Structure formats: C-alpha cells, structure tokens
Amino acid sequence: MAENSTGNQRGRGRGKPFVKGQSGNPAGKPKGARSAVTLAAEALLDGEAEALTRKAIDMALGGDATAMRLCLERIMPARKSRKVAFDLPAVNATADLAPAFSAVVGAMAAGDLAPDEAMTIAGVLEMKRKAIETVEIERRLAALEAAQASGK
Q1: Would you list the domain boundaries of the chain?
Q2: pLDDT tens digits, 3-26
Q3: Residue 83 in contact with residue 98, Cβ under 8 Å?
Q4: Integer angstrom CA distances of residue 137 from 28, 94, 130, 151
C-alpha cells in the first residue's frame, strides 16, 4: 500500500502541498508571453492584415451588417467609465444625503450625467450613508457602555 506522504508536508496541512507565496513553477511562462494560438494566427495573417482590413471596409460599405459592426467596434469601441464633474454638496452627516441625491438626480435630468453614471454615484452615496450610520452607532454604543460602566 502507499506510504503516508504527509511527512514531506510538515506544517502545511492536509491538501495544501505548496508553501504560501511560493510559486509551484518559478521558471514558468513569463508575463506577456503569447500563446501558441496567438503566434499561429499572427503567422497566418503576417502581411495580410492590410488586405483583410480593406476587404472588411469594402464589405461594410457594401451593406454587410456584420462587417459594419466589426468596423464600428474597432473605430469606436464601447465607452468605458469616464470622469464626471458636477457640483455635489459635501456629505458629512445623514442630513447631507438628501441634497446630494438631489444634485445627482438634477444632473441626470439636465443631461450632464447618464443614468448609469447617476446610479454609480448614488451607490457611492449609499455606501457613504452606511459608513456615517456605522460611525454613529459605534459612538452611541460607546456612550451607552460608558454610562452603564459609571452607573455600576
């Protein structure tokens, strides 16, 4: 029967054969290395990229919807998040949240914020509300504990 091999793994625990923070293959694939599929595709397309691009553009101009979508996705990729600047009042207490939410809704209504951007900002304000309430609860709890301790 197989021998118990836990002697080699002292201190690492059952099912944890590797030392934490140490790579199992330190001489492994370097960062930025391309896969064999990528290298094969590049070899096939070598020197043909311009002709293929021209063909895709010609097909798009000819009315091919798939080619149009492909070309437009390359020209104008999907918009990622962007920096947004608008007046947002300071939020230091829960009472400050109503004017802040109102500013977000107003900016969205004016077209300065897209609805998804307004939702993101509203989510951040909601996290701020939770943080303010947590600090307030901790402060109240500490005061109650101090009052209870001094009353005994």
Answers
A1: 35-77, 94-151
A2: 555 455 455 667 777 777 777 777
A3: no
A4: 51, 13, 10, 21
